## 1
Amino acid sequence: MKAKLCSRNAHKARELERLLPGWEIEPLAADDYPPETGGTYYENARGKALFGHARTGGGEWVIGEDSGIEVAALDGGPGVESARYAPEGAPAIARLLRDLDGVAGREARYVSELVCLSPAGEETRGTGALAGRIALEPRGTGGFGYDPVFVPDGEERTVAELGDEWKDRNSHRARAARALLAALAAALLLVVSACGGGTDPTSKRVLHAFFTQSPRGRTMGERFPHAAGSRGCQLHDGGKVVQATCSTEVSLVKPSRAVVTLTEAWNHGSAAHTWFFFITRSGVIESVVQEGSAPPAS
């Protein structure tokens, strides 16, 4: 899946790309982004997403993001004003440390809001927060923004010292990305439950196109039924053969689009993994959302 991040910040684009498996994220090049005048992270993120949706002509997935750092001793500031508090990097860190000079209580939290718009303008959002405290001085070379002075709860090192692998699991943006993926999956689940199981002739044609026209559909079609329904399949978990059930569903959600839902369930149904393929009715995959347990190898 490809999406434009409505930001000129290449660091955020690369980080978000790691946090959304299977997505390709590129910054949206523009010199006329609207000012961030919203009173909340959501309002600012949504404003960026709407700008990106208009700029791309509605032909691409776009993501708006707003984030900030909230310091208890500064009455929750700089908060939504974080980007305007001081120039990013060393100047912003220097000002924050000056404003906290001599302050004992240094509790703080990072907040991130993601707003995703589909090519049709459908909105999904995810929010994440990370609590911690502000260090007395910068430490570490990783990350960006306030990472060199932010020490997460339960840690002694700053985010800049903990590194990208830690950030990809625990950061405020990682939590927002997981919430966004869950919201996308939930939205598709509602669509699937509302639109039937795919037994009509059009649904059958869509499934045939998906399993024959797209390379990934052909690969998945080696174990999933090519019509709505379920069949037994074998997976491999740690060298062991696992008996599973592979199920296929399709929902016609728009005049030219559909959702193909493929589910593997194993361990007597106690574990499952689901793929939601958002496709054109000619079988072209536009995006993929996954949820559930990590799937064993087929």
## 2
Amino acid sequence: MPRVRAGSITLNYDRQGSGPPLVLIPYLAADYACYAFQVADYAKHYTCISVDLRGSGESDKPAGVYSTEMFADDVAALMQSLGVAKAHVAGLSLGAATGMWLAAKYPERVKSLSLHSAWPRTDAFVRAVVQCWQLSAKAADNVAEMVIQAIFPWCFTPELYAQKPDYIQALGDFVRGRPKQPLAAFTQQSDAVIAHDADAQLGKIRAPTLITFGRHDLVTSTRFADRLRNGIGSSELHIFEHCSHAALYENVPEFNETTLRFLHQHND
């Protein structure tokens, strides 16, 4: 995969497809390949630029404190290095938190914004959940196994586990096959999740914005919907009724259809 200097670090990214640029920002502990089920459809219409955030995949993993604002600065620097003046931007969870900062700080770079399983400011519940993941990662000394055993149950409904155990197994095998994230880098990324606060930035977002939640998501539940919907001027809300935190895997057809419809509407 190509690597490019973005500001003070080197970031790894993947580019597929043709058409208007679409930047895809991954979630906690994931690399660019986490959007594989989406890029298969998106790349028919868009140039998909999927990035490894600092601390994950093949991107640099410098020491120090990470923040969602810092991740947004990195993505803006990546776009500049690639000569991408403006793009559709999409992210899930940590990727959505990063997208908020990107759209608020660099409005000229964001054509549309898609925020999936997002939250404006970390509350006590999100903090407790993420701290539990940190403890699990330290205990296992293996980030991939922690993701499968500790994070997966927050991402999928009990029905998916019951009805499609082979699918859950395949997703776990996929996680195990990706570049290993060091424990220190996971801790830095997850500390950024705990510290996330873009509440005051919402009013600065000018791009048309799609906000989605899974009806059964407990971590970033629909408790955050009103604040995001009311805080971002040009926004619309969609609920995936039978999904939890990761609708992009739990209902791939509906997720892709919904997100592509939004992108097409804002392609002028």
## 3
Amino acid sequence: MYVITGITGKVGGAVARALLSNNLPVRGVMRDVSKAAQWQDLGCEVAFAEMKDASALADAFNGATGVFILPPSDFDPAPGFPAARLIIDAVVQAIRCASPEKVVCLSTIGAQAEKTNLLTQRTLLEQALNALDLPVTFLRPGWFMENCALDVVSARDNGVIHSYLHPLDKAVPMIATADVGTLAAMLLQQEWQGKRIVELEGPQRVTPNDIANTFASILGRPVVAEAVERDAWEAIFRSQGHKHPLPRMQMIDGFNEEWICFEKPQAERVMGETELEVVLRALLKTAG
């Protein structure tokens, strides 16, 4: 039995579908009862648990051949990441109690970074899971191509995308969530000992100008990228409802200054197959 947390999201759903396509047993962990039927119709078992409920998680992980850990993302964390720490503690307790055969954890590019930033939540998770006495793989993907969902309306309606990644011609390792899910499903089916890191990026690195040009190609009209100046970030993020914008700002700094980066040589990295155009077409199709 393969247990998938975050099954109702893009990555978790992709992991589950990949396993189900191979006729493997899947138990999806979710908190929303209304989303259970669609997964049960696909042949999944369903378990209900909040990610901070160690007891419910342990029940969900019981008897698992492999567990996929995808904690919810907190884009506006309070200082010290208290919400993330509660979830991490619950996940660790549940794994210790249930003793699954192995764990695949969705981490992130730059989890090894020493500077505090939004992705430090994944650093803390890696550190906690590293202390467990069972096989764990940390899957570290690059920047998700689906983050471009924030650019769809302005690209389509105004012919511009507003980029926090600087400079506009600097390439960033990006990956489609479908490729993350496919690889995670493969890793769950593998056997290994101890702890390992698997890094993942797409078929080519992407610049903000590439994103604008790809939108332009799809839409059939000009789209340009404009840089959002660093001095404006805090006011913008606060206007969007952020109470603690600094971690997000520091994360973007990390990509721009390249201290958020892959840890291993490229020769040891897994390369995804999904092109940026495929992702942007899907985002435009579903945009309101």
